[in-house]
């Protein structure tokens, strides 16, 4: 059998590739301008011999840790051929991820639709709409997944699906991810390899990135993930049952009613559950000490960091601890910083606040029962 050479034909113009190259150049430009953030080193006189570092993700252009994730999700979708010129983008989100995604959709001139609980803070909704995005509300947090998938199918668009793709879209080996940034900035500090990194989980993608990076670089650092009331992560990590479900969290951006695909329990060294009142109290305490407001998930992180520090003090150990400032507290003026909202939801932060203030000033930790 003979095989004939193909006849010559005009090559395709590849207009989509031209758009792809332009889009990636825009995303890479944003990354060069904004990928790194400050590593804040506040001093607390009660924490003798323990250095505290807070990676301040609130300084990104869209005001939160989710700016990194959104950029990664866009690059992931474009490089896999799922996002092209004119693609309608749909996301399920409790707010901050959708704000960042709306920013990138605006940058690339793409339609964007966020599916979110009706209880999402007004400030986040307004931010999405300022970037030209639209919001579709559901009554129950557990509905956002199926509704987002349905709307993507109906519009012929792309479901960004942060909860599945967060751990896939980020290069955990490096490439300027948050873990590489933290450990690079720690070089030259008194204790350059932190004893623990403490952080909360929303998609689970950031904890997966940090946990994997720690192992990849063969570091002695351990990862503590702090979870909140109404979240499935902690119970699933303890039991090993990834089908665990829960009611859902009151702390926006973290805690989930189900175990998300991006949550990787095997890279976590320890987990604790933090009461909502303690998260919000810690948010208030840290805000006062930094002279600016931080969000509720940062409060959860900070409470967990204080708990780790208390254990180190009890054991007579010195070292460094790292956590994250996830976003600004300005988005929560009507909720976590509003005494009427706290009273309406039966949240009394006073005992936890007093305990934390005493701990930071004296090193004495007395758990609230």
Automatic annotation (TrEMBL):
Its main location: cytoplasm. Its EC number is 4.4.1.1. GO terms for biological process: L-cysteine catabolic process to pyruvate. GO terms for cellular component: cytoplasm. It is found in: Cytoplasm. InterPro entries: Cds1, Cys_Synth/Cystath_Beta-Synth, TrpB-like_PALP, TrpB-like_PALP_sf. SUPFAM superfamilies: Tryptophan synthase beta subunit-like PLP-dependent enzymes. Keywords: Cytoplasm, Lyase, Pyridoxal phosphate. The modification N6-(pyridoxal phosphate)lysine is found at residue 66. Its cofactor is pyridoxal 5'-phosphate. GO terms for molecular function: lyase activity; pyridoxal phosphate binding. Residues 44-327 form the Tryptophan synthase beta chain-like PALP domain. It catalyses: L-cysteine + H2O = hydrogen sulfide + pyruvate + NH4(+) + H(+). The keyword Lyase applies. Belongs to the cysteine synthase/cystathionine beta-synthase family. Cds1 subfamily. A cysteine desulfhydrase that generates hydrogen sulfide, H(2)S. The H(2)S produced by this enzyme may modulate central metabolism. A cysteine desulfhydrase that generates hydrogen sulfide, H(2)S. The H(2)S produced by this enzyme stimulates respiration in M.tuberculosis, mediated primarily via cytochrome bd with a lesser contribution from cytochrome bc1/aa3. H(2)S modulates the balance between respiration and glycolysis, and also contributes to redox homeostasis. Probably eliminates toxic levels of Cys (which can induce oxidative stress). This is L-cysteine desulfhydrase Cds1. It comes from Cereibacter changlensis JA139. The gene is cds1.
